[in-house]
Design brief:
Layout lengths: L1 H4 L4 H10 L3 H4 L18 H11 L20 H16 L5 H10 L4 E7 L7 E7 L1 E2 L5 E6 L3 H8 L3 E7 L10 E10 L2 H7 L1 H8 L11 E17 L2 E3 L3 H6 L9 H11 L1 H12 L4 E10 L2 E8 L2 E8 L7 H16 L2 H21 L1
Antiparallel strand pairs: 1-2, 1-5, 3-4, 4-7, 5-6, 6-7, 7-8, 9-10, 10-11
Helix pairs in contact: 2-5, 11-12, 12-13
């Protein structure tokens, strides 16, 4: 990992951490150093001076966060730019961790890993990929076969379990996941009918014909004990069960994919303009929307050959799809009035025009 980190300018690497929501790494006066300080009795004046300099560099392992060695020196102008970007990211509006967790579960694929206490090997866990449907409170409802190992675990050992749900399209550690820990209980037939659990499950899994089979039984996470949420690199929290259960599902994420696809395919230049104007980051080469909620975007930015994510908030919260479109148009128009943005976009277009002319 050290080799890949070395390609990030020091402060912009720290900004990418902040964009992921890690207040600890960039909080003034806080330190997560990668190496211990030299013993006081042996520290020379030069060592002390070096330590003080490190403390004053955001992201250097002093006040700024993790130490990253062999980083190139930045100009004073670039330091100022990246410090301004980090300041912007600190104040950028985001969903709460509980809202993020609820929304991830709501918009997931409907499949997750259920961990139970094994009935085969005493004292060891068992894991199984299972289908689920979240109820109105965000707790999962299951339909299990009597033959499944996890069903036997629940009936023979106990209902203590954990469900790990990944974000739709999950590919790796940079993507979100939520673990719900609690007690899974069997649901009686009368309760299934009363609460419409068959319909709830079929809404998420339309082809789940087995819900009518006699050897399949409904279960649910009836008691939530803990929530662990990881929203990506350096964005993690443990919302309380009450915070999770009371959080609202973000309505904008329901149509985020087509909106982002349209912007990325047809209006990528507008995203570059918005990032430059609103975040204050010059010389942006490319920008792709990777997440959208009612408070704004997450944008994957390419600059000086490096790629990182930044938060691009809306001027106000979006109420619906029409409102999202209006906000994007409003922000784009404002960005295009910025003379520095105009000049940069014109410079980016010149190589493309030259390449097109050469091809002709």
């Amino acid at each position: 990992c050290r080799g890949s980190m070395s390609r990030f300018p020091l402060l912009l690497f720290a900004a990418s951490l902040l964009a992921a929501g890690d207040a600890l790494l960039l909080a003034p006066g806080r330190s997560v150093a990668a190496r211990p300080a030299a013993p006081r009795a042996l520290a020379t004046a030069a060592e002390k001076e070096g330590e003080e300099e490190g403390e004053d560099r955001l992201g250097a392992g002093g006040r700024g966060g993790h130490a990253v060695r062999n980083m190139p020196e930045l100009s004073e102008e670039e330091k100022a730019v990246q410090a301004a970007v980090m300041e912007h990211q600190r104040g950028a509006a985001r969903l709460t961790m509980a809202e993020d967790a609820r929304s991830l579960v709501a918009y997931s694929s409907g499949y997750a890993v259920l961990s139970t206490l094994s009935s085969q090997v005493d004292g060891y866990p068992n894991g199984a990929l299972v289908g689920f449907a979240p109820d109105a409170s965000g707790l999962p409802v299951f339909v299990f076969s009597a033959m499944s190992s996890h069903t036997k675990d629940l009936s023979k050992v106990g209902g203590q379990a954990a469900l790990t749900v990944t974000a739709k399209g999950f590919e790796g550690a940079a993507d979100g996941r939520v673990t719900l820990i609690g007690d899974v209980e069997r649901v009686g037939k009368e309760q299934v009918e009363k609460e419409g659990l068959k319909e709830l499950y079929r809404e998420r899994h339309p082809n789940a014909f087995w819900v009518d089979f006699g050897d399949f039984t409904f279960y649910r996470l009836a008691s939530l004990k803990a929530v662990n949420f990881v929203g990506g690199f350096a964005r993690a929290a443990a919302p309380s069960p009450d915070e999770y259960l009371s959080a609202e599902v973000d309505p904008i994420q329901a149509f985020a994919a087509p909106v982002m696809g349209h912007m990325n395919d047809d209006h990528a230049e507008s995203t570059v303009a918005m990032v430059m104007h609103y975040v204050g980051l010059p010389d942006v080469e490319a920008a792709q929307l990777v997440a959208l909620d009612r408070l704004g975007f997450m944008v994957q930015v390419t600059r000086q050959g490096q790629t990182f994510k930044l938060r691009l908030p809306f001027p106000r919260a979006a109420a619906d799809r029409k409102d999202v479109k209006s906000l994007i148009v409003e922000m784009t128009q404002a960005a295009y009035k910025d003379e520095s943005v105009q000049a940069h976009l014109a410079a980016l277009a010149k190589p493309e025009e030259s390449a097109a002319a050469a091809g002709a």
